[in-house]
Write a structure and sequence with these properties.
Order of helices and strands: EEEEHEEEEEEH
CATH topology of the largest domain: Immunoglobulin-like
Largest sheet: 5 strands, antiparallel
Strand content: 35-45%
Structural class: alpha+beta
CATH class of the largest domain: Mainly Beta
Number of helices: 2
Oligomer: single chain
Distance between the termini: 99 Å
Length: 155
């Protein structure tokens, strides 16, 4: 029997990615209850392959052990402003046959850049103030909303 694929979700952080892994379900039942892979194997191994979307070949992280159905791990020391993709494979000591998760991609630090958002808002406010000041000067200079006197025929 093949294990997998696990369910993978990713959240970007500053120069890192938080990867949440949910172990695949099993097809075994005991007393009407569906058994998890942890119930069957007690401990599982997972291996994360990380690659960037700019064509750099993926590299495997060291194999890790877990006894949890759902858990998170952080992939750190990543380059900023790069899109990364992750695939996870799950094995057991008694079962090395597995199906890797599909590649899941996320920018490495899209949510961890509040400075850019603040700068964009500040820039928009400055531009608005400059436009308002220019319009006020034009109004004071009489470029629009001029008080024209009516022709004598209409008086």
């Amino acid at each position: 029997a093949y294990l997998g694929p696990p369910e993978v979700n990713m959240t970007p952080c500053l120069n890192c990615i938080n990867v949440t892994i949910k172990m695949p379900t099993s097809h075994f039942r005991e007393k009407g209850k569906q058994l998890s892979l942890i119930d069957i194997y007690k401990e599982l191994y997972y291996e994360i392959t990380l690659k960037s979307q700019d064509g750099e070949p993926g590299h495997k992280r060291p194999r890790e052990k877990t006894t949890q159905e759902v858990f998170s791990t952080v992939l750190d020391e990543l380059y900023p402003n790069r899109n990364y993709c992750v695939s996870v494979v799950v094995t057991a000591s008694l079962n090395r046959h597995s199906i890797p998760s599909p590649w899941k991609c996320v920018p490495s630090d899209t949510e961890a850049r509040p400075g850019y958002q603040v700068a964009a808002v500040a820039g928009a406010v400055c531009v608005s103030l400059i436009i308002a000041a220019a319009l006020k000067c034009m109004h004071a200079g009489g470029y629009f909303l001029q008080n024209k006197s009516l022709p004598r025929a209409l008086v």
